[in-house]
Structures are given as structure tokens and as C-alpha cells.
Amino acid sequence: MKVYFSLEDFQKLDFAAVTTGTFDGVHIGHNKILEQLNQAAATIGGESVLLTFSPHPRIVLQPDVDLKLLSTQKEKIELLKNTGLDHLIIHPFTKEFSRTSSLDFVRNILVNNIGAKKLVIGYDHHFGRNREGSFEHLKEFGPTYGFEVEEISAKDIEDVTVSSTKIRRALNEGDLETANEYLGYDYPITGQVVEGEKIGNTIGFPTANLVAEETYKLIPMDGVYAVEVQFPSALEQKFQGMCNIGMRPTFSGKFKTIEVHIFNFNRNIYGEQMQIVFKRRLRGETKFDSIEALKTQLNNDMEHARKVLSSH
Fold first, then answer.
1. Which of 88-97, 114-123, 231-240, 247-256 has the highest mean pLDDT?
2. How many Å is the Cα radius of gyration of the chain?
3. Entry pTM
4. Domain 188-311 in the same topology as domain 2-166
């Protein structure tokens, strides 16, 4: 898969099968679209192209809305590499670009810039200024500009009943089983390990404090989770652990943290990149009356996490 960070970097194809959208999370619904896109490219003897945008259009157009995303740009690229896609264009999204009319979007971008001979879109897809463009517009433009439109039916999309919005809701409710099922993979967060207050060391549960690499990355609901841990510098090695997301009420925490206790692990990892993969939420965050009560619960959590992780 070739990646381009602007339409200007892309060289027009003779036969392109194109789809467009934000593809946040690259979930199983997106994979269905991309599978159909690749098939469409094969039927015309061409190549498949996904046109997506950065930042997410809603972040630009609705800056007051604190939208959290399922995937960083780096994660999205890695996920798309596994779909068979030939070309990925990540075009900068600006307010000026948002004013592009649906006709200009089709004629200047999809046809003249990319070389679209086939468009594959979801049944409710809209595009162009104020989302004015629709499937009907594309059917109307097709004969004029020399492309065919292939729509993914409502039934095909509804068969998997999935959307990025539903996955965000599941993660915000701590429902990892639903989120991971809809994603088609286990939800990850990658970031840097930073120094914390080292309270975990004093109670026999040392933790790695993680700061997500992008502020817009969605953090699941507060609580304790069974997780798998990897380091990008050594991806072949995986560790098991448990993660606490929250305010650490037993210690009167002042801000939210992501802390991971890695089982059977004793290495200085400050400053390293680390990825945690969420398997299941074990419980909500609790304020304990004593340190001993907390330690007892943490031992129970560890046993519970090991059982969950062994079943995965």
C-alpha cells in the first residue's frame, strides 16, 4: 500500500476504484467497504484508492465538540495495510477545503486528480460542502464524467450493525467485548512511559504510567482492565498485565492517569514507547478504606486478569 499525505502528491491513475470517508478505527464495517472496493478495482483492471482526511472533519468544523477518535493516524495506516488497499491518500482537511462543492469534489478531485472509473460508497454517504452530495448526485454525475457508482446496500452495512459512533459509546461504557467485536481487533493505546509518584512500588504493585501519544485518542471508561502489553521496539514479545484508568481515589489523586502493572516484569522503561491492548474491564474504580484492603483487591484483580488473559 502506497501512502500519500496530500492529493498533490498523488499521480492520477488510468483506472481507479475509489472510496472516501474518515474510516476512524478501521472496523469490520470499513473492512466490508474495502473488500468491495478491491473487488471493484479487479473488475476494471485497476487499483483501489481510499481518500481520507486529517484532521477529522468534525474536529475542524465543530471545534467546541470534544471528539475522541478510535485510531491515531499512525494506527489507521497500519490497520489499512492489512486490507489489500493499493493507495491511501490522507489529505489535509481545512475549513477552505470543506467549502468544496459536491460537483467540484467529483469532477476535480475524484475524476481529474485521482482518475476514478468506479466509486464504492456506503448507502448513506454524503460529501462536499454542507454534505450536499449524495448517492443520487453521483449517479447523476457518472455518465458525464465517465465513472460508475457501486453502492454498499443498507442491508450489507446493517448486517454487521457497526459504526465508529457505536464503538466509541461501548468504550465510554467500558464494554470492551462489544467494542472489540465491532472493531475486529482488541482496542489499543500507544504512548510514552513517564515517571509517576511511584506509589505502586510501596505496595508491591509497581506500575508504568502511560501518556497517550495523541490527545484526541479515546480513553476507555475509568476502571481496572485486563491488558496485553507490547513495546514497539520489540513487537515479538508480549506481556500480560492489568491497567487502572482513573483518579486513584484511595490516594486522593488530582488528575486522571493510565497505570499498568505488568506481570513478572522488572525493567526500567521510563521514556520508552509502550502499547496496551484492552481485553476486558474487570471492575470500576473504587476508593478503599485502607492500603491493606486495596492490596487484597489488587491480588484478586491480578488473579481475575490472568484468567481472562489465558482464555484469550
1. 88-97
2. 22
3. 0.90
4. no
CB within 8 A of 254, min separation 6: which ones? 247
State the fold for domain 2-166. Answer: Rossmann fold (3.40.50)
Give how far Cα 39 sits from Cα of 12, 23, 30, 151, Å.
20, 19, 14, 13
Distinct helix (H) and strand (E) counts, the chain? 11, 12
> Looking up cell 501518556, which residue turns up?
211
**Residue 300 contacts by C-beta under 8 Å, 6 or more apart in sequence?**
none
Between helix 164-172 and helix 176-183 the angle, nearest 10°, is 160
Domain ranges of the chain: 2-166, 188-311
Q: Which CATH class is domain 188-311?
A: mainly beta
CA 76, distance to chain mean position in Å, is 6
Vertex 16 angle, CA 13 and 19, to 5°: 130
Calpha distance 148→103 (Å, rounded): 15
What cell was used for 283?
A: 471492575
Q: Which three cell numbers stand for residue 55?
A: 484532521
Per-residue pLDDT reduced to its tens digit, 141-178? 899 999 999 887 665 555 545 788 899 999 999 999 99
